[in-house]
Hints:
Blueprint: H1 5-16, E1 34-38, H2 45-61, E2 65-69, H3 76-83, E3 91-96, H4 97-107, E4 119-134, H5 143-152, E5 158-161, H6 167-179, E6 184-187, H7 191-199, E7 205-209, H8 210-218, E8 223-227, E9 252-260, H9 265-279, H10 282-290, E10 293-299, H11 300-321
Parallel strand pairs: 1-2, 1-3, 5-6, 5-7
Antiparallel strand pairs: 3-9, 4-7, 4-8, 4-9, 4-10
Helix pairs in contact: 2-9, 4-11
Amino acid sequence: xxxxxxxxxxxxxxxxxxxxxxxxxxxxxxxxxxxxxVAFAPGGATDVLTRLLAERLQAGLGQPVVVENRAGxxxxxxxxxxxxxxxxxxxxxxxxxSTHAMNVPLYGxxxxxxxxxxxxxxxxTSTGYNLLVVHPAVAAANVAELIAxxxxxxxxxAYGSGxxxxxxxxxxxxxxxxxxxxxxxxxxxxxxxxxxALVAGEIQLMxxxxxxxxxxxxxxxxxxxxxTAPRRxxxxxxxxxxxxxxxxxxxxxxxxxxxPAGTPPAILERIDEATRAALRDPDLIARYAAxxxxxxxxxxxxxxxxxxxxxxxxxxVVRDARITMD
Length: 326
């Protein structure tokens, strides 16, 4: 289960702690702009959150932090590019639950990178949940009614996702399995075009990221039925959890900052310091919260153990749901 309590406790301790002693700085680094790869299209959840973070990292590192979108293949294209980049601190990756956990069981030996072996984790940066949203014309006011509608129209309701193997895809596949319904999957290159298709009525539902869907819900362009958290969230107390209808249903999302394996420890420490400072920024915390996402800091060692546990968890989910990319 994903929770933010531990992360917020660590963050709070950082806010009240005395200044950290100066560490040995990597000589002459950084001397030029730093490339921060997002493995998804512009406008999607990962892209939006990364750009907000990059602004603060730039201030902390004293060099431009340039976000580069390398979308495609459930994040594999951009993640592979980061894995094969020179380990000099000038290429970073905003890794996600999709690129670093879900893709492992989904693609197996076909995966062109190893998320544990090929990357040096710097820090986890955020955590959140998806929303089950429908087009306003869908005749379902809650999860139970949506399930009944789907059972009455097998294969007649289409759901969008940010691509095969993403959290927006696997959340819907879990829903299909647990609810015993047949839904048509329509994958997109990221959550932004999928959400646009939902607004246009080209698809009927989506387990969208809160970053992408909350503005649409507030504008009345889509309707939220539930959140994928294990229980109702304090920030959205009137929105039921899917688990209230399907006990045990949960889909948490997370992002983390990574460098290619072999990046010098002094550079990783420097980026970690800048990341912690960025995540303590009240404006960043508020802007993430407005997007339904929580700032979550966890350092490299903890991030590694968490990643290993996530890979095991999603291996079980993919196996039990018999999800394949063939």
